[in-house]
Design brief:
Radius of gyration: 58 Å
Region (Disordered): 181-286
Strand content: 5-15%
Order of helices and strands: HEHHEHHEHEHEEHHH
Organism: Papiliotrema laurentii (Cryptococcus laurentii)
Biased composition (Basic and acidic residues): 219-232, 251-275
Main location: nucleus
Shape: elongated
Number of strands: 6
Pfam families: Fcf1, UTP23_sensor
C-alpha cells in the first residue's frame, strides 16, 4: 500500500475511533459479492487489515452464505473462504437477499460499530446515509479501498465537537469571579480565615545574586610578605657573591703573573752573576 493512501486511511479511521467509539479488532461484515470479486490468490484478511489500519475480525451473515451455496460448486473455493469467517446471526428464518440482510443487521445507527465490505453500489449509496459506517469495496482496478467518510459521518462528528466545545464554555463561564465554581464560597471563606489567622511575614531585602557578584581579593598575609623579602635578600646576596668571585679571580691571576715576572727576573740576574764570575776566574792569556 502506498504511503499516501495509508495516511488517508489512518485519518479516516481516526474519525471513527474518536467520534463513534470504534475499537480493534474491527468487526467487518463481508458481503458475498466482495468474496466473488476477490482474486483467489489474494489474502482478504490482510487487505481488510490494511484498509482499517489495524486488526480486523471478518464476519458474514447466514443469508450471504446461503447466496454462495446457491451458486454451486463453481464458487466452492469462495464458499470455503466464507466458512472461515465468524458467522453473524441475522435471525432470518427465510434467507433474504444479501443487500436486505446487511441493511437489517446494520440498522439505522450502526450501534454495533460494523465496517461494511460490500460491492453493490446501490447498497453502498443507501447505507452511506448512516453516520459512523466505514465502507470498503473494490475499485475498478481491482484494489480493495476504504471509502472516504460520508457527509452524514462528517456532519455528526462536527456536531459532537461543537457540543463538547459549548459544554467546555459553559463550565468556564464565571470562573473569573468564582460564582460557578463548586465550593467557591466555602473555599473563599476558609482561605480568608486562614489568612487572618496566619501571622504576616515581613518582606526582607534580598541580597545580590552570588553568581553576579565579583569575588573579593584576599588581603596579603604577613608571612607571605616576609617570604618575599627573604627571597629578595637571597637574590641580592647571590648577585654580590658572583661579583666578589669575579674580582678574586682577577686578583689571583695578577699575583701569579707578578710572581712569574719576579721569578724570571731573579733567574736572569743569577745567570748574569754566574757569567761574570766565570769571566773573572778565567786567566788572561799572555
Amino acid at each position: 500500500m502506498r504511503h499516501k493512501r495509508a495516511k488517508t486511511y489512518k485519518r479516516a479511521i481516526a474519525i471513527y475511533t474518536t467520534a463513534f467509539g470504534f475499537r480493534t479488532p474491527f468487526q467487518v461484515l463481508v458481503s458475498n459479492d466482495v468474496l466473488l470479486a476477490l482474486n483467489r490468490e489474494s489474502d482478504i484478511v490482510k487487505q481488510l487489515s490494511a484498509c482499517c489500519q489495524g486488526e480486523v475480525k471478518p464476519m458474514i451473515t447466514q443469508c450471504c452464505v446461503e447466496a454462495l451455496y446457491k451458486l454451486g460448486k463453481e464458487v466452492q473455493a469462495v464458499t470455503d473462504i466464507a466458512k472461515t469467517f465468524e458467522r453473524r446471526r441475522c435471525n432470518h428464518r427465510t434467507p433474504l437477499e444479501s443487500d436486505a440482510c446487511l441493511t437489517d443487521v446494520i440498522g439505522s445507527t450502526n450501534k454495533h460499530r460494523y465496517v461494511l465490505a460490500a460491492q453493490s453500489k446501490s447498497l453502498r449509496t443507501a447505507l452511506s446515509a448512516i453516520p459512523g459506517l466505514p465502507i470498503i469495496h473494490f475499485n475498478p482496478r481491482g484494489v480493495l479501498v476504504l471509502s472516504p467518510p460520508s457527509h452524514a459521518t462528517l456532519k455528526t462528528k462536527d456536531a459532537q465537537e461543537e457540543s463538547r466545545r459549548l459544554e467546555g464554555a459553559d463550565l468556564l463561564q464565571g470562573v473569573q469571579d468564582g460564582e460557578n465554581v463548586i465550593g467557591a464560597g466555602s473555599t473563599a471563606t476558609t482561605s480568608s480565615s486562614t489568612a487572618a489567622a496566619a501571622p504576616t511575614k515581613r518582606s526582607r531585602a534580598k541580597g545580590p545574586n552570588p553568581l553576579s557578584v565579583k569575588k573579593k581579593k584576599a588581603a596579603p598575609v604577613e608571612h607571605k610578605r616576609e617570604e618575599k623579602r627573604e627571597e629578595v635578600q637571597l637574590a641580592a646576596a647571590k648577585k654580590s657573591r658572583r661579583k666578589r668571585g669575579k674580582g678574586l679571580v682577577k686578583q689571583v691571576r695578577e699575583e701569579m703573573a707578578a710572581e712569574d715576572l719576579a721569578r724570571a727576573k731573579r733567574a736572569k740576574e743569577s745567570a748574569e752573576g754566574r757569567a761574570s764570575e766565570q769571566a773573572a776566574e778565567t786567566p788572561l792569556e799572555e
